[in-house]
GTPase HflX (Amphritea japonica ATCC BAA-1530), 439 residues
Amino acid sequence: MFFERPESGECAILIHIDMADEVDRESPKELEELALSAGADPVAFLTGSRSLPSPKTFIGSGKVEELKDLVRLHEAELVIFNHALSPGQERNLEREIECRVLDRTGLILDIFAQRARTHEGKLQVELAQLEHMSTRLIRGWTHLERQKGGIGLRGPGETQLETDRRLLRARIKSILKRLDKVRKQREQGRRARSRSEVPTVSLVGYTNAGKSTLFNHITDAEVYAADQLFATLDPTLRRVELDDVGPAILADTVGFIRHLPHKLVEAFRATLQETIEADLLLHVIDAYDDDRQSHIDEVHSVLREIGADEVPVLEIYNKIDMLERAEPRIDRNDEGKPVRVWLSAVTGEGVELLFKAVSELLSDDIFHEQLSLKPEEGGLRAQFYASGAVLNESVDELGQINLEVRIQRKDLMQLLSRMKIAPERYLGANVNKPEWLHS
């Protein structure tokens, strides 16, 4: 039902209205890109401005008449608004112009439905669609509107709507149950990676910034990449090798967009968990885009919404091959840490600098030292071996155990806590000592 699409593009009219009180205005250019990504064939673009949207039809009566003429002139099958419409506004507009109406949220949901490939992705999209549709069911029963109440005049309309709503609720409940199972499976995978001390690096960014192209270049994967919005929907994980760090997991995730529908954020929370629990985020930015800064702000907004704003971020300025006199480089902060890498995912220029920057940032969290343990500290030695942290071992003439240890600092802290050993013994005097630890 939700994944069948017409073979040819539907003839569509696009509408963008500038509102006087809008702080964050939508982009008309982005609406056209979204429509093309959905497979529509835009034939006209209707623009205008209003102080406030009309409660009944969003646009004024004059624009409604103008829209009617455009629909008849182009024999349009679809009208797409670059705004969120209420169910009543959609219904009233369809009655007035006798053409199907879709708002920005519905358009994004449709694109997601087309892109979903995995079982989990399809479930997540269907959940968001069903929740969006639940407030718009009456639109499908407008042929029963003339039936009046009263004895002998009660028709099946209300009964059918209630049946549909009940079926929707049952389907939503079923999907939530299945997604909960998927979440638990993902959580098991994350716990296994955590136990094996493999760091996770997650690609994030505005849609069409070049995340999948970069992911394919780094991992030799074959993730679908195209010059269109939301080319990637389902997350992909690949193992990569990093100098001074060892194996790491690289995750390619769905792109963000301005005013990403909240229903989608909620439905994709299991997928976005890869972002929340990553050790490092690679924020891929289209360096050639005129709206670069607004897209950066939007990504930060979504990261805050999903609770990932505390995860360390390395900015990746992509598409330098389209800029004049741009060279691959690493920008650093006052402490000398990498904060930004300039590269081209298409040509591969600067990708080796990305590896270097990621290795530097992740190795900051790696404890790699030679430790001397007393003979009676065999328990600590055993814990290091159990964690897979021992690279080399030797015993001197006094019975001292010399270990070359390589382990994530957070895992070392947990290990020392279990053994009731003061962390400053190995991490230096500047480490805050929990009250319950003894020297």
In short: Residues 1-8, 141-150, 429-439 have pLDDT under 50 and may be disordered. The chain has three domains: 10-102, 197-362, 366-425.
